[in-house]
Specification:
Length: 242
């Protein structure tokens, strides 16, 4: 099967998945919101009752409420991730600076990453042409890559952010100093719901690939166990960058 045929097949599958996702969202979101609202009401009633009766087991009951609430929120997050992958909103595309977007995104999470012992090193092409696309979606893709890199470095490390271009393309690289990805699972890391992390959703990199494909680009992965990983996003130049 040619690359073009594979791409068309992928788009057809995603269209069908998006239609299913819209139905799924409607059927699950409404009752879930009702459950969340009624859980808060019930929790308030239990707290009020406990304050009046000083029931010995009230703290235990409230802990159960917190567990249920946490699981509902987690399920809501999973559904949102599924919708982001299968039925994303249509983006508004404008010309923007990829360098500025990268710097602002890194600055947004710099403090949190610093607490984990993770530092940033910038290698940005100064005269980088502007990119035609959705800055919000590209920011989401970049955040997903940065979070993925941070999870690969639980003991801290460094992330190199690099941009560049040639006559036909612009590129963005995110390189980490983590443990690397085994050859046996490289082909799976962009698959929805595939994860090696205990609490991972398995959607982060799949969403990255979907966003980049919608912008006419592609994602490349270079990784070696013990030597870290580099994700490179490549976009076609729009011809209207100036």
């Amino acid at each position: 099967m040619s690359d073009e045929s594979k791409e068309n097949e992928f788009r057809d599958r995603m269209t069908t998945l998006g239609e299913m996702a819209a139905v799924l969202a409607h059927e699950i979101k409404n009752p879930m919101n009702s459950i969340i609202i009624n859980m808060e009401v019930l929790k308030g009633a239990v707290q009020d009752m406990a304050s009046k009766t000083q029931a010995a087991n009230s703290e235990k009951v409230l802990r159960y409420f917190e567990i249920i609430n946490d699981e509902i929120r987690r399920l809501d997050k999973v559904i949102k991730g599924f919708l982001d992958l299968a039925a994303p909103p249509q983006p508004t595309k404008v010309l923007f600076s990829l360098n500025q977007l990268l710097q602002k995104t890194a600055e947004f999470i710099k403090e949190e990453f610093s607490k984990k012992g993770i530092s940033f090193d910038y290698r940005l092409q100064e005269d980088l042409p502007r990119l035609l696309g959705s800055s919000d979606q590209i920011r989401q893709a970049l955040l997903n890559l940065l979070i993925n890199s941070s999870q690969a470095m639980p003991d801290g490390g460094s992330i190199i952010l690099e941009t560049g271009y040639n006559e036909k393309t612009l590129y963005l690289k995110v390189q980490d100093s983590g443990g690397g990805i085994p050859e046996s699972i490289k082909a799976k890391v962009f698959s929805p719901y595939f994860t090696t992390k205990e609490k991972g959703s398995g959607l982060g990199l799949a969403i990255v690939r979907r966003i980049v494909r919608e912008h006419g680009g592609y994602v490349e992965l270079q990784s070696e166990v013990g030597k870290g990983s580099t994700f490179q996003i490549v976009f076609l130049r729009s011809g209207a960058e100036k």
